[in-house]
C-alpha cells in the first residue's frame, strides 16, 4: 500500500468513526439496524440486552447515546451521578407540564392540623396496580410514609413479619378507613392475608369490593374526564367522604376533575403541602400546569450521552430532529426516532447544555441516601462471590432502592461459596443463590435452609442438575459391587455427586446404611479417591474419627510440585481434579476407575479433559451399564435428577418471611415476566455481557421449596431426607452429637441397672 492509499484509509476510518454515533438498541431491532447501516446514516446500532447494560457502556464510552425511562433516569442519577450526561428529555406531545407527573394530596378546604389533622380520617388511593401513571412503589407510598410514619416502628415486633404487614398495620392505626386497591404484596398469600386482616383499608372501595378497584357510584360521565381512571375515582372517593379525607393523586387528574367534572366544588378542596399548610384549589391554582405543592415530582425520560461526546451528541441531535418531533418521511432520522424516541406522541426537549445525571434529577426529585433511609426491617444482605456478581447485585440493590422496594438490599462480596455459607450461618450475611452441589453441605454443615428454589427454562440443559457415574469404556466394571477397592473421582467432598453416590450405594447395599459417617463409608469402600475438600473443616459432615487422607490421594496439583510431593486436596482450581471438569480429567487418568459428576456442559467438559464420548460409558442407577458409550440423557441412568439451584438462608431466621416476600417482589420487577417493568434491569439475564452472575442466564423464576410439584424438586427433598435419616453409630454435628452421647450413656446406665435388678 502506497503512502497516498494509506492516508486515504486513515482519513476514511477517521471520518467514519467521527460520523458514527453508537445508539443503544435493546434486543437488536433488525429493521432499524439495517436501516441505520445504509449510506448517509450517522448512527449505528449498539445492541444491548438491557438499559442497564446501555448505561454501563455509556459510562465507559463504548456507546454514545441511550434513552432512559423516568425511573431509569432516577436510577442512573443514583448509580452514575456524574459519569454520563443528560442531553434532552422526551415528553408526551400532548403534555406541557415540566414533569412526567406530580403526586399531590388533596383534602377538604376546611382541613386543619396538617398531617396530624388526618389521624382517624380516611384515605383514597389510586391503587397499587394502576398503570397509567407508572408510579413506583416508592411514589405510591410517599404520602402514607410521611403522615402515618409507616417507616418508623420503634416498638414493633418484626419477627416472622413481612415489610408489608408492618406497613399496613401502622397505616390501619392512622386511618380509620380507606380504599387502597390492588396488590399490597407481590406474594399473593401475604396479600390475601393482609386484605382480610386489615379490611378497614379497603372499606371505601365500594360494597363487596375485594379491594381490587373502586366500585363506587361515579355518576354520569363527563367528556374529557375518564370515570374509570383510578385518580378520578380516588378524587370522587374524597368528594363523597369529604371531611378528614385525603386523596393522593396526580396533579394532572386533579385539574381535570376540578376544572371539567366538578368545577362547582373546587374551592371547597385544597392541596395539602409537606409543611402541613393548605392551598385552596382556586381557578388560578387549577390553571397552573404545576401543582401549588407536591410530594413527588417525576423527571421526564431522558436521552443520555457518554460524557466525552455529550456536547457533540447534543449538536447532532438538534440537526437530526430540529423541532424535536418525528420528522416523518422515509429517512433514517424517522426510523431512528420511531424506534428509540417514540412514535408521533413523543417530543424531544433539548437541554441548553448537557448536564450530569444528578444535576438533571436533583432539582426535580431527589431520594434520601441509600444508607440513611429508614425501614422497619433491616437490609437483607446478599452474599456474592465475584466482583462481577457484586456489580450486578449493586445494580439490583440500586434499582430496588430507586423503586422503593422493601426491605432494602445490601451486597457483600466474598471469595467463594463456603465463605458465603459461613457468613450466613454466623449472621453476617442473610442469603445466597447456591447451586444444588452445595445443598447437602449447606444443610448439614452450615445448618441453612432454602427460602426459594430457582426455576430454569425447561428447554435449557441447565434446567435441572443431573448426576451420572462414568466409567472408562476399557474398564471391566459392570456393577456397583465391582467398585469396591477401586479408585474414584468426585468433583467435591460432600457435593451433590458425592452424596448421590452415597445414596445409590445405600440402595445397592454396597455401603452399610447404618454408617452415617459418609467420609468413612466412602473412604473404606474405595481404595482411594479424589474428593476435593475432604480434609477441610468447611466440608465436615459429621464429627468423624476417620482419617480421610485416602479421599485425597488420587487428586493432583494443577501445577506439578518439583519436590514430587504432589498431595493436594484443595477445593479450587489449584487441584487439577476439582469440579466437574476436574472429575473428567481425573477419569482420564489411567489409574482411576470411575467418576461421579454433573452432566452440565458435559460435551465441552469431555473435550477439555481430552476424552472422546466413545471412551466413556455410564453405570446406571439400576446397576446396569448403559447400552451405548458416551453420555445420554436417559433418566433411568441418572444417580440424581434434582433442581439446579436454590436460595439459602439461616434455618429459623426470624426475618425469613420478609426475605421470601422480598424475593417475590424482586421477581415481579426484575424477573422474567413483568407487566410492570419500570426499570429495564433483568436479574436473570447476563449482566454487562457476563453470563451466570447470581443466577444462571436460563433462570426464569423462583418457586417454593416445599411446593413440590415437579419431580426434580421432590427428588431433591427426598435425597436430603434420605441422607438425614441415617441413624447409625456415627454422630452428626455438635448439637446432635451431645444428644447421641447422652442417649448412649442413658442406654448403658439402663442396661447396667437392668442387670443389677435382674440379679
Ligand atoms: C373491578 O375489578 C373486577 C375484577 O376484579 C371487575 O370485574 C370489575 O369490573 C372492576 N370494576 C370496575 C369498576 O372497574
Ligand atoms: C451541576 O450543578 C452544579 C450546581 O448546580 C454546577 O455547579 C455544575 O456546573 C453542574 N455541572 C454540570 C456538568 O452540569
Ligand atoms: C479388572 O481390572 C483390574 C485392573 O484394571 C484388575 O485388577 C482386576 O483383576 C480385573 N477384574 C476382573 C474380574 O477381571
Ligand atoms: C492420616 O493418614 C495419613 C496417611 O495414611 C497420615 O500421613 C496422617 O498422619 C494421618 N493423619 C492423622 C490425623 O492421623
Ligand atoms: C436399567 O436402566 C437402563 C437405562 O434406562 C435400561 O436400559 C435397562 O433396561 C434397565 N435395566 C433393568 C434391569 O431395569
Ligand atoms: C409467600 O410468603 C410466605 C412467607 O410469608 C411464604 O411462606 C410463601 O411460600 C410465599 N409464597 C407464596 C406463593 O405464597
Provide the structure class. Answer: alpha+beta
Q: Could you say what the CATH architecture of the largest domain is? A: 3-Layer(aba) Sandwich
- The CATH homologous superfamily of the largest domain is termed Periplasmic binding protein-like II
What's the CATH class label of the largest domain?
Alpha Beta
Radius of gyration, in Å, reads 32 Å
**Unreliable runs, pLDDT <50, ≥5 residues?**
6-17, 730-759
Largest sheet: 7 strands, mixed
Would you tell me which CATH topology of the largest domain applies?
Answer: D-Maltodextrin-Binding Protein, domain 2
Q: Which ligands occur here? A: 2-acetamido-2-deoxy-beta-D-glucopyranose
Organism: Euphydryas editha
Protein name: Transferrin-like domain-containing protein
InterPro entries: Transferrin-like_dom
GO biological process, one term: iron ion transport
Task: Give a description of the structure.
- It contains 24 helices and 25 strands.
- The protein is of the alpha+beta class.
- It has 4 domains: 18-96 and 300-362, D-Maltodextrin-Binding Protein, domain 2, CATH 3.40.190; 101-297, D-Maltodextrin-Binding Protein, domain 2 (3-Layer(aba) Sandwich), CATH 3.40.190; 380-456 and 644-754, D-Maltodextrin-Binding Protein, domain 2; 465-642, 3-Layer(aba) Sandwich (D-Maltodextrin-Binding Protein, domain 2).
- A hairpin with a 5-residue loop joins strand 9 and strand 10 (278-280).
- It starts with a helix and ends with a helix.
- The model is unreliable at 6-17 and 730-759 (pLDDT under 50).
- The structure holds 2-acetamido-2-deoxy-beta-D-glucopyranose (NAG) (6 copies).
- One 2-acetamido-2-deoxy-beta-D-glucopyranose is lined by residues 355-356, 359.
- One 2-acetamido-2-deoxy-beta-D-glucopyranose is lined by residues 547, 549.
- This is Transferrin-like domain-containing protein.
- Keywords: Signal.
- Residues 1-18 form the signal peptide.
- Pfam families: Transferrin (PF00405).
Amino acid at each position: 500500500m502506497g503512502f497516498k492509499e494509506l492516508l486515504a484509509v486513515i482519513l476514511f476510518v477517521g471520518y467514519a468513526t467521527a460520523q458514527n454515533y453508537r445508539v443503544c438498541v435493546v434486543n437488536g431491532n433488525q429493521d432499524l439496524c439495517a436501516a441505520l447501516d445504509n449510506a448517509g446514516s450517522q448512527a449505528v446500532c449498539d445492541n444491548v440486552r438491557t438499559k442497564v447494560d446501555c448505561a454501563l457502556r455509556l459510562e465507559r464510552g463504548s456507546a454514545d447515546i441511550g434513552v432512559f425511562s423516568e425511573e431509569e433516569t432516577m436510577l442512573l442519577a443514583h448509580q452514575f451521578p456524574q459519569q454520563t450526561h443528560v442531553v434532552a428529555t422526551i415528553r408526551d406531545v400532548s403534555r406541557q407540564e415540566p414533569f412526567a407527573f406530580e403526586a399531590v394530596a388533596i383534602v377538604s378546604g376546611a382541613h386543619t392540623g396538617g398531617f396530624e389533622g388526618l389521624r382517624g380520617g380516611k384515605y383514597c388511593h389510586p391503587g397499587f396496580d394502576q398503570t397509567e401513571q407508572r408510579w413506583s412503589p416508592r411514589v405510591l407510598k410517599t404520602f402514607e410514609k410521611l403522615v402515618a410514619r409507616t417507616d418508623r416502628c420503634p416498638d414493633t415486633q418484626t419477627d416472622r413479619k413481612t415489610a408489608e404487614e408492618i406497613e399496613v398495620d401502622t397505616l390501619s392505626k392512622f386511618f380509620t378507613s380507606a380504599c387502597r386497591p390492588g396488590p399490597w404484596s407481590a406474594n399473593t398469600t401475604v396479600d390475601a392475608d393482609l386484605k382480610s386482616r386489615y379490611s378497614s383499608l379497603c372499606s371505601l372501595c365500594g360494597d363487596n369490593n375485594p379491594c381490587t378497584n373502586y366500585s363506587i357510584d361515579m355518576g354520569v360521565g363527563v367528556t374529557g374526564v375518564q370515570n374509570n381512571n383510578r385518580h378520578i375515582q380516588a378524587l370522587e372517593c374524597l368528594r363523597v367522604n369529604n371531611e378528614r379525607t385525603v386523596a393522593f393523586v396526580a396533579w394532572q387528574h386533579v385539574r381535570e376533575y376540578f376544572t371539567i367534572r366538578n368545577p362547582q366544588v373546587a374551592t371547597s378542596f385544597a392541596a395539602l403541602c409537606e409543611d402541613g399548610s393548605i392551598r385552596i384549589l382556586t381557578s388560578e391554582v387549577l390553571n397552573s400546569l404545576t401543582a401549588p405543592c407536591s410530594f413527588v415530582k417525576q423527571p421526564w425520560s431522558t436521552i443520555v450521552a457518554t460524557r466525552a461526546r455529550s456536547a457533540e451528541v447534543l449538536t447532532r441531535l438538534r440537526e437530526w430532529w430540529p423541532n424535536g418531533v418525528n420528522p416523518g418521511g422515509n429517512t433514517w432520522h424517522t426510523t431512528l426516532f420511531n424506534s428509540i424516541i417514540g412514535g408521533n406522541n413523543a417530543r424531544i426537549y433539548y437541554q441548553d447544555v448537557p448536564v450530569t445525571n444528578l444535576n438533571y434529577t436533583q432539582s426535580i426529585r431527589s431520594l434520601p441516601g441509600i444508607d440513611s433511609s429508614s425501614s422497619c426491617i433491616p437490609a437483607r444482605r446478599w452474599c456474592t462471590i465475584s466482583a462481577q456478581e457484586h456489580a450486578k447485585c449493586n445494580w439490583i440493590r440500586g434499582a430496588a432502592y430507586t423503586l422503593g422496594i422493601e426491605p432494602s438490599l445490601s451486597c457483600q462480596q466474598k471469595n467463594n461459596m463456603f465463605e458465603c455459607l459461613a457468613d450466613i450461618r454466623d449472621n453476617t450475611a442473610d442469603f445466597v443463590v447456591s447451586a444444588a452441589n452445595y445443598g447437602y453441605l449447606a444443610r448439614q454443615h452450615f445448618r441453612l435452609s432454602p427460602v426459594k428454589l430457582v426455576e430454569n427454562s425447561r428447554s435449557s440443559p441447565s434446567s435441572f442438575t443431573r448426576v451420572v457415574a462414568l466409567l472408562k469404556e476399557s474398564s471391566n466394571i459392570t456393577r456397583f459391587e465391582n467398585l469396591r477397592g477401586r479408585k474414584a473421582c468426585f468433583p467435591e467432598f460432600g457435593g451433590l455427586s458425592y452424596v448421590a453416590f452415597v445414596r445409590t450405594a445405600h440402595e445397592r447395599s454396597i455401603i452399610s446404611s447404618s454408617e452415617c459417617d459418609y467420609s468413612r463409608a466412602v473412604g473404606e469402600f474405595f481404595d482411594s479417591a479424589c474428593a476435593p475438600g475432604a480434609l477441610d473443616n468447611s466440608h465436615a459432615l459429621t464429627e468423624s474419627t476417620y482419617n480421610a487422607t485416602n479421599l485425597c490421594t488420587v487428586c493432583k496439583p494443577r501445577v506439578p510440585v518439583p519436590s514430587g510431593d504432589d498431595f493436594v486436596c484443595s477445593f479450587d482450581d489449584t487441584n487439577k481434579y476439582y469440579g466437574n471438569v476436574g472429575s473428567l480429567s481425573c477419569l482420564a487418568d489411567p489409574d482411576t476407575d470411575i467418576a461421579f459428576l454433573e452432566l452440565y456442559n458435559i460435551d465441552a467438559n469431555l473435550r477439555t479433559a481430552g476424552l472422546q464420548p466413545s471412551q466413556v460409558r455410564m453405570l446406571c442407577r439400576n446397576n446396569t451399564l448403559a447400552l451405548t458409550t458416551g453420555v445420554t440423557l436417559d433418566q433411568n441412568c441418572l444417580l440424581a435428577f434434582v433442581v439446579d439451584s436454590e436460595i439459602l438462608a439461616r434455618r429459623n431466621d426470624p426475618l425469613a418471611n420478609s426475605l421470601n416476600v422480598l424475593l417475590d417482589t424482586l421477581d415481579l420487577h426484575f424477573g422474567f415476566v413483568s407487566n410492570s417493568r419500570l426499570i429495564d434491569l433483568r436479574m436473570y439475564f447476563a449482566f454487562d455481557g457476563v453470563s451466570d452472575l447470581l443466577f444462571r442466564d436460563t433462570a426464569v423464576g423462583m418457586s417454593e421449596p416445599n411446593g413440590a410439584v415437579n419431580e426434580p424438586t421432590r427428588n431433591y427433598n427426598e435425597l436430603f431426607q434420605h441422607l438425614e435419616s441415617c441413624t447409625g453409630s456415627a454422630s452428626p454435628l455438635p448439637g446432635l452429637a451431645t444428644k447421641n452421647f447422652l442417649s448412649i450413656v442413658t442406654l448403658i446406665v439402663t442396661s447396667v441397672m437392668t442387670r443389677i435388678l435382674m440379679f
